[in-house]
Design goal:
By secondary structure, this protein is α+β, with helices and mostly antiparallel strands. It has helices at residues 5-46, 190-202, and strands at residues 66-75, 80-84, 88-92, 96-105, 111-120, 128-132, 139-141, 145-155, 170-179. The radius of gyration is 26 Å and the shape is flat. Residues 29-51 and 191-203 have low confidence and may be disordered.
Length: 203
């Protein structure tokens, strides 16, 4: 039984709708994956959600007001022991602080991790700055080895005049180590393929 022009036109419209839905779904999935790194970049550049912007130099102003910075450490899906060498530090707002952390790899092989970080309360994240931190790159620790990492930081003097933060006397800097994403394998160049073939020929 042959199809009528109307039924054929309906099938085509249905196919176009299905294709449009598939394209929208694929775009939404791609946007979801892209949103994670973009959100992290946004947070670290603005201090939003307690993320800490990176600084290139310390401020020239030090206030006659002290702030206590607490340190918190966590590990997710890694056989590591991660601890701060100090539970807290009290320093003048605007002055540079130096804190140390130790990480022990309890596994029988080297492992690579990456540290995420934030400050609580969230409002303080915008004014908390790092001059040096192990969290800006992957860290590979040999088996059964302990490494010591420094963090150099300061709190921007504007912290003391912002209505949302001026009454704070304590903030907490928190780190969490996660397994670092595996690097993507790069295809061999023609030169490398040629060397590989030559080497195989000599075996």
């Amino acid at each position: 039984m042959s199809s009528t022009p109307d039924s054929e036109s309906q099938r085509r419209r249905n196919a176009r709708v299905a294709l449009a839905c598939l394209v929208v779904f694929a775009a939404m999935v791609g946007a979801a994956f892209a949103a994670v790194p973009l959100y992290r970049i946004f947070c670290q550049s603005t201090g939003f959600a307690g993320a800490i912007p990176r600084a290139s130099r310390a401020p020239g102003q030090v206030l006659d007001r002290k702030l206590t910075v607490g340190f918190d450490t966590n590990v997710r899906d890694l056989p590591w022991t991660f601890k701060p060498e100090q539970t807290s530090q009290t320093l003048n707002i605007g002055s540079t602080g130096l804190a140390f952390f130790t990480v022990t790899n309890n596994a029988d092989r080297p492992l690579t991790g990456r540290a995420a970080y934030n400050v609580a309360p969230d409002q303080a994240g915008y004014y908390f700055r790092k001059l040096q931190c192990f969290c800006f790159s992957d860290q590979t620790i040999p088996a059964h080895t302990t490494l010591r990492f420094p963090v150099v930081y300061f709190v921007d003097p504007k912290f003391a005049s912002d209505p949302d933060t001026k009454d704070f006397t304590n903030v907490t800097l928190s780190y969490t180590f996660f397994p670092a994403p595996a690097p993507q394998a790069r295809p061999a160049t023609k030169a490398q393929q040629g060397l590989g073939g030559a080497a195989a020929g000599r075996l």
